[in-house]
Amino acid sequence: MTERTNRQLLLARRPVGDVADSDFELRVEPVAPLDEGQLLIRNLWLSFDPTQRGWLNPVESYVPPVAIGEVMRASGVGQVVESRHPGFVPGEFVSGLFGWQDWVVSNGMTAMGPVQKVPAGIDPKAVLGVFGVTGVTAYFGMLDLGQPTPGCTVLVSGAAGATGSVAGQVAKIKGAGRVIGIAGGADKCAWLVERGGFDAAIDYKSDDVEARIRAEAPNGVDVFFDNVGGPILEAALNNLAMRARVVLCGGISSYNAVELPPGPRNYMQLVIMRARMEGFIVIDYLDRWAEAVGALAVWVHDGLIHYEEDIQEGLEHAPATLRRLFEGRNLGKQLLKITDPPII
Question: Residues 294-319, buried b or exposed e (16+ Cβ, 10 A)?
Fold first, then answer.
């Protein structure tokens, strides 16, 4: 059998500002034979999320930063090609923190949890999106923190992304009277209304965001699900309803900043409107993961949740694919296809 070689993209230096191709270096090495208790996975799909940019900074967060010389961290879906592990057989699709590489040798664990089998009947790459971290984040962020009530007004920033698009649809399912999305560009805004079921969409590239929020939510915003931060957050804070809930899911507007911008200048709106602003990390809900996936699966099957996937191809394009998130070029979940599943 021809020796397998593994392409790996390693962090060569910490990005300053936007991520560059030169921040990573390519290493090619042979795939080692399996020891007892190990399995070999062919990496097929990679997930791209804004949080990955934060992992490249030399600061401790909810996970350690990616180390210089380490394979770039990313969730992936692959197929078991060989197994000397009693829990896996060749041909099974699996997911885990596989990183930017072609092949993964594992003992059934990754640096952030076990290798998981993809449930039968599910598109394998969907476990990186609507049935994965982004969908589950939307589910718990909206329901546990946002707590939408029948007839309420919900505003979502980054609404055409993988998390925001699902969050808005979850709010609608739970009876929100009006769901408004903020996104960049006419095509994304059209998708939100025509496909995502949002009641209105605000184009931050061409609209006066604060004026449009005021017009679309004349009685104020009861729930703001924020993926962006910065001026968008300030515009929302100026339009809160009494006892509103502000859910801090992300702040993509500042992830590439060399120096962190000041916090919202108008945070006293929280006091004036007796509102609550709270952040969360989805890993706090690991013990309830099955609850979210089960509900999302039913809603997708019933046509109540629609989702999109933005698919790029080729491991060598991984840095450029990560940049797409910060260039506002993706609609829905950003994925990269490495290769087709092997014939087993």
Answer: ebbbebbeeeebbbbbbebeebebbb
pLDDT in tens, 226-256: 999 999 999 999 999 999 999 999 999 999 9
Instruction: Of 151, 93, 72, give the one whose Cα is nearest residue 344.
Output: 93
CA–CA separation, 168 vs 158, rounded Å? 10
| Beta-carbon-side half-sphere exposure of residue 191 (alpha carbons within 13 Å) | 23
SS3 182: strand
Long-range contacts of 54-63 (CB under 8 A, 24+ apart): 54/255, 56/11, 56/14, 56/15, 56/19, 56/23, 57/14, 58/14, 62/281, 62/283, 63/112
Which tokens go with 325? 């998130």
Beta bridge partners of 9: 26
pTM, whole model, 2 decimals? 0.95
- Report how far apart the first and last C-alpha atoms of the chain are (Å, whole number): 14
Under a CB-based contact definition with an 8 Å cutoff, are residues 137 and 249 in contact?
A: yes
- At residue 261, what are phi and psi to the nearest 5 degrees? -70, 165
CA distance 57 to 133: 21
* Cα-based distances in Å from 318 to 15, 20, 57, 78, 309: 15, 10, 18, 16, 16
CA distance 249 to 281: 8
Cα(241)–Cα(216) distance, integer angstroms: 13
Q: Are 101 and 7 in contact (CB under 8 A)?
A: yes
DSSP 111-169: TTEE-EEPPTTS-GGGGGTTTSHHHHHHHHIIIIII---TT-EEEEESTTBHHHHHHHH
Q: What are phi and psi of 242, to 5 degrees?
A: -60, 135
pLDDT per position as a tens digit, 54-81: 999 998 888 899 999 999 999 999 999 9
